[in-house]
Each structure stands twice: as C-alpha cells, then as structure tokens.
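Suppose you are handed a protein chain with no further information: no name, no annotation, nothing but its sequence. What can you learn? This example shows the usual starting point.
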Amino acid sequence: MIAPDRPRRSALYLPASNAKAIAKARTLPADVVILDLEDAVAPEAKAEARAAAVAAVREGGFGDREVVIRVNGRATEWGADDLTAVATSGADAILVPKVDGPEDIAAYDAALSTEPVATQLWAMIETCASVSKLSEIAASAATTRLSLFVMGTNDLAKEMCARLTPERTPFLPILSLAVAAARAHGVALLDGVCNEFRDCDIFRAEAEQGLLFGFDGKTVIHPDQITPCNGVFSPSEEELRWADAVIHAFTLPDNAGKGVIKVEGKMVELLHLDQAKRLTAVAAQIAARG
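A reasonable first move is to predict its three-dimensional structure. Written in structure tokens, the prediction is:
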C-alpha cells in the first residue's frame, strides 16, 4: 500500500486545438491536464491540434499540474506523426489509446525511446481485448515506461454494446479487475469519465464509486467536475483522525512488536497501519499543493 508519487484526484481532458481551454486549464484546480489529440479533435484538425499541444507544453504555465498528451493510436493515419512530435515535447506523460495487450505497450515504449527517462507512458483500458490481459499489460510496467491506467468506459460500452448508466453495472467486474491488476504491479489508476457533467449528484456518486473500488482519481470532461472530484478523492478529516490514531497506537511501548492491537475499541492489524500511513502521505501531498 504505497502512496502515489503525487496526487491525481482529477484529470481534465480538453481538446488540444482549443487555445482558450488550454489557457483556462492553467488556472483550474485539476491535478492533471490531458491535452487530447484523439477523441476530442476532428480529423481535419488533427495536425493543428498536435502542433498546439506541443507548443502549450513547451510554453508551460501549468504550475505543479501534470501535463499529459493523449495521442492517436498507432494504427491510425495520425499515430506515427503524433508520437514523433510528442517525443520531444517535454510532457509529463504520453497517454496512448486502444491498448489490447502488452505488445502494444512495448511498441509505444520503443517509439518513445528518445523521450527523457522521467516521461511516463499511460495506457487507456478501453477495449474488450484488453480485459483478459489486464495483468499482462500491468506487468509490462517492470520493463517499460508504463505507470498508469486510464479507464475508457465510453469506448468499452461501445465495444461491448452495453449501456453506460450511472450505476455502471456492466463494467463493475472490469473496473475491479483493472484495479487488482494495476495494484499487483505498482501501476496507478484513473477512473473513466462521467458524461453527466451538468448533474453534480450523479457525478459525485460515480466518483465515490471509483474511490470505493480503489482508484487514485478520475478523469473529467468539464471544469465544474473538478472541485467535487478533488473532494471525493481527498482524505476526510475523520479518516485522517483515525489514521493518526492508528499510527500513534502502534508507536506505544505496550504495543511494540505486536501485529494486532486494539484502537478505540476496534481490532487493528499491521495492514491497517500501512493503510493509515498511505492515507496520511496522500494528505500531505495534497496539502503541499495548496
């Protein structure tokens, strides 16, 4: 139960072709900004968006937000040019779509060989083919730049011919499997988008569902979703109070060397101590962001 290397409570998608949206993103409280070259950009605007994304990253001004570029897939007519352009952009991460298996991760990793070592590779989990290979895909993090999964529930719904309702019932097993596979191999995770950007209650319920499953944060499609998203994926005062109580209890001399102790009338094990430390580490990272 290690803490994430940085908070990623909210990750805002925006079209890389929209200069006003990019300028506004520099002022928003999102932890991550994703400059999209794929779904949010029309075919005739792809080249322009690519140039704008690279220019925006080089211009900077995003503060301590992570800046990510989502490219078009390798098999598309824009994929190769996207990878060539972003390979020297300086983006914190490159988000790649339609990953079917570990061979795709290896191919993208090879294409990004000229990127600085710190540049991460993020993968969209959004195809039916990927579902049976989640563990293998996550395991490739040991030998590639892969560091994070992003769930693409809209594309999954399309491929599965399933209905994407607020309950997300058809996708719950996939979300659970993705979390388990990622955690087994030290890969972070972001939940998919909520299309109901005008209904805060539906969005919050879906974000809380993602938190329940173990996601680090959630991708969002509208600025109004950022604040509630940050709220859901930030530890509450009560959670932090309990975490502090657990950590303190294990430091007491009477509890030295014990694997199970009692805290406020509840049985607590060492695994709960690990969880408490992770929670306080996340809270410290969020506080440092201001």
